[in-house]
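A quick aside before the break. I want you to see a complete sequence-to-structure record at least once, exactly as it would be stored in a machine-readable document. Don't worry about memorizing anything.
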Amino acid sequence: MASPSITSSGLPDGSAASLTGFLHGLPGVDQVGAEARAAMLGTRSIKNDAKSWAIDLAIQMIDLTTLEGMDTPGKVRAMCAKALRPDPTDSSCPSVAAVCVYGDMVQTARQAVGDRIHVAAVATAFPSGRASLEVKLLDTRDAVNAGADEIDMVIDRGAFLSGNYVKVFDEIVAIKEACGSAHLKVILETGELKTLDNVRRASWLAMVAGADVIKTSTGKVVPAATLPVTLVMLEAVRDFYRVTGTKIGVKAAGGIRTSKDAIKYLVLVNETLGEDWLTPDLFRFGASTLLNDLLLQRQRISTGHYSGPDYVTID
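That is the input. The structure line, written in tokens, reads:
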């Protein structure tokens, strides 16, 4: 797919006219081509030694997540213990990248993990994004003050789909400022954007506004992460880097449950962006159950057989 045309004036300045002109000037996505390429890359097989490396890398890329109304401090502390030591029987098993919780659980999570891994908080009226900017800013600042060093915000999909790109842009800019030194992940909720063209536009809009990472989904909408959607986002990141020299991360979240699935995403990243992006700083999985399957597959490679169902904790 061709890179988007960037005018001599550079990226849009945030005005309605510049954003609309720029985003609608991006080349359309060949949906058939994107789906075919994603499917082709998803069939790649890798050898056992490479699979072992890929499983450990995938573990290190996980944002281990609990985002339920019934979350308790005890549940969050148990998740944090698992995040730090996924396999208590094997000290060579790496920790995950981060734990991801609601803002009111950030302090509990930070106390549990210290500075050993990141603490991410969903904010800005997650998952709907239906709140005033003032509420969203307060939500963000509260999470950062409680110890979050990563903020996962949701865009206003209604504003985006109605063409009010300025509102989406301005909110991302404001939330980025409220984050301070915390990294900002911008959730596009691609299942509600409907088309790959919209996914490309939303990806560029988020990056131009200051996102450190663009994220597929909240995990609360079906479909969530898919290979074609993630491919389009990775290509947007690639093209943004070519234009600006800035590396933006990608987080695939929702519906990724098996080692086989995770490896497909790693292949997609490697083939689209190269080895530089095969790092937890630039690619993440948002998941609650993926870690269990990675641990089972890791143990099978090590011992030659699968463990029993009680080998991993039930999430």
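Two observations worth writing down. The first strand starts at residue 62 and ends at 65. The chain has twelve helices and eight strands. We'll return to this after the break.
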